Amino acid sequence: MDPRFEALADLAVHGANVQPGQVVAVAATTGQEEAARAVAHAAYRRGARFVDVTYFDPWVKRERVLNADPETLAYVPPWYGERALALGEMDAARISFSGVVSPEAFADLDPGLSGRDQLPWLKETSQLIADKSTNWCGIVCPHPAWATLVYPDLTEDEAYEHLWRDLSHVLRLDEPDPAAAWRTRAGELKRSARALTERRFDAIELRGPGTELRIGLFASGTWEAADFTTRFGVQHLPNLPTEEVFTTPDPMRVDGYVTSTKPLVLRGATIIRGLRVRFEGGRAVEIDADENAEALRSRAATDDGASRLGELALVDGHGRIGPLGTVFYDTLVDENAASHIALGFGFPFAVGDEDRDRVNKSGTHIDFMIGSPEVDVDGITRDGERVPVLRQGDWQI
Amino acid sequence: MDPRFEALADLAVHGANVQPGQVVAVAATTGQEEAARAVAHAAYRRGARFVDVTYFDPWVKRERVLNADPETLAYVPPWYGERALALGEMDAARISFSGVVSPEAFADLDPGLSGRDQLPWLKETSQLIADKSTNWCGIVCPHPAWATLVYPDLTEDEAYEHLWRDLSHVLRLDEPDPAAAWRTRAGELKRSARALTERRFDAIELRGPGTELRIGLFASGTWEAADFTTRFGVQHLPNLPTEEVFTTPDPMRVDGYVTSTKPLVLRGATIIRGLRVRFEGGRAVEIDADENAEALRSRAATDDGASRLGELALVDGHGRIGPLGTVFYDTLVDENAASHIALGFGFPFAVGDEDRDRVNKSGTHIDFMIGSPEVDVDGITRDGERVPVLRQGDWQI
Predict the structure, then answer these.
(1) pTM of the model as a whole
(2) What ipTM, to 2 d.p.?
(3) Would you call A86 an interface residue with chain B, using a CB distance cutoff of 8 Å?
(4) What domains are there in chain B, each with its CATH number?
(5) Gap from B79 CA to chain A (nearest CA, Å)
(6) What's the CA gap between A176 and A194, in Å, rounded?
(7) Does an H or E element contain A185, and which?
(8) What is the least distance, in Å, from the CA of B70 to any CA of chain A?
């Protein structure tokens, strides 16, 4: 086994904070076997009771989209969701790998069709996240095909080495003690989150090339960062890497237009470039793009909340991803390079009890990047005062 | 895609007789992706509603056996069995691949430990089979590592080609119309099964080198072959290849000793050579072997029925497997080369209502080969008369 996967796996079980006796669900894609086996090793060494690795096969999904009755494409067998909820009921851990594996499996499919099949995403996963009923970690996983996509001018071997180097840096695996490095960065992010929470802004405004967007916040809203704690008390790092501070905005008060600053890669590898979205009264009323707008439109039409915001995240210029200037075509990495918003479900734990029922509900959650050094971020106070929040990637508060 | 996998997949969906609108569960092992994707293609083309491919990863199981608390090794998350039973409730189809993939994953493990973890086998699968609630097909799937095990003197490429040639022959994929060839062979097997059923033998005796075994039969017992029909009326070929006629014997009336005529490969790839079992009053009271007896002993100790017989199968010398003279180290192929018995659950559908409760119950089912041209098979009538059944592989009835 490539020892780099052992280091990645050690960080993954640290991120999820796997507890002795826990069942650990590992969500991998075919092609990520080496990482999955390394995580199984690391989790069993931490005392896991059972490591349940599932492999999603993009080529099987491709056969479905190409050959199944289009009317059946949204069907999900009941045991998928039942397993997810059972994980929550038994206080399990979850580790899932992000990263591109088989971009060619979906490249030539009709995005209107492939968007109907949201697997491996499950709407029940949003409930696990909202309920804080699993300690979990989504972590990036290098793959040669991903490397070729990110560094098309290099040979496959060179590209793969380059991807490992970049991702090791981004994951702080190039530090003598990656866990300690994450504690330090988590401290910084949580300080920013606290500062934003204390300001109690009524709204956030983003202004830059192609973007003029006002996003209303809940009066009881809080800003979160870096780590979560489950309802049974296990602190964990749900995303590695993570460079964001985020909240769940008011899904009824979003107005203006926004232009994405990075490509959006829908899980399943459909790449949406040049995305432009216009919001009215919280709803995404126009979705356009240079490529594959229809894939996002069909995702945004899956339920009522899929066309409203569930997340607003701000990313400063001091993380490790933005400075690389690289498009990774993977949401988990790219979303931590720049401020972003997400259509779909929000986070009930980021508001007080009085606003919990107003948090956006949806079976989906799609992040897309709208920040850059050229995008100014302001907070609007309840008195209508405008307070600079981010300028050229630097916190102003 | 290797077009041979397309032909194999076409035969698999024909064997399972996949119906339009069905959910199709495909059980594969990592390394069998090409076959799984080909089956997904073929099943969707037949109108499947959803093809649910699961990949069992032997290397993850290896990590468990090496690193988990031994006391937890029998644990199976509840959703495994719940999914199996849900397949039965929704009248689903099942296709599973047999064949060796990663023999080295278990070769050096303590068989007493690895035998505690029976995955990917599920006890609920025995209920699906007993209830005839799914139309299913277990089919062999070639793999280079399997080929190297079977033909150790050839190069990997030569061995793989040789395995494809042998298995194509055995699967009748070398016939212009494999489905028609299976209809013909199924007709022959069912004629032999009818002849055995009509004799209403009280017992079967096997005698040969190292074997002198008497197996009592149920008065209401029937002999089955080649195809099953689900409770909802779908005829299917549950095993491909199949060359056997079989019944479920009386689990209380088995006496004598038996020596296996081929190695037994437990799912998970532990190879048991030189197996010798002694029965008293139906129970396997002694299990010995030249190699890995402990793996079978621990399987036979999993529940009360695991040390009693659930199956007696007779194989004539006119199938396609026996004449090859090859040990395939895979039960689905090897069991169809020679007469065999199985410890574990029996088949309630092979007896009348009056004997149904007496059929052996167990969560396991382990076939091992006890027949050869040197083993004579006799039927014993209710009057104690001895009637030759098989001599040198030829039917005498």
Answers:
(1) 0.90
(2) 0.89
(3) yes
(4) 3-170 (3.40.1830.10), 198-227+242-395 (no CATH)
(5) 6
(6) 29
(7) helix A178-199
(8) 10
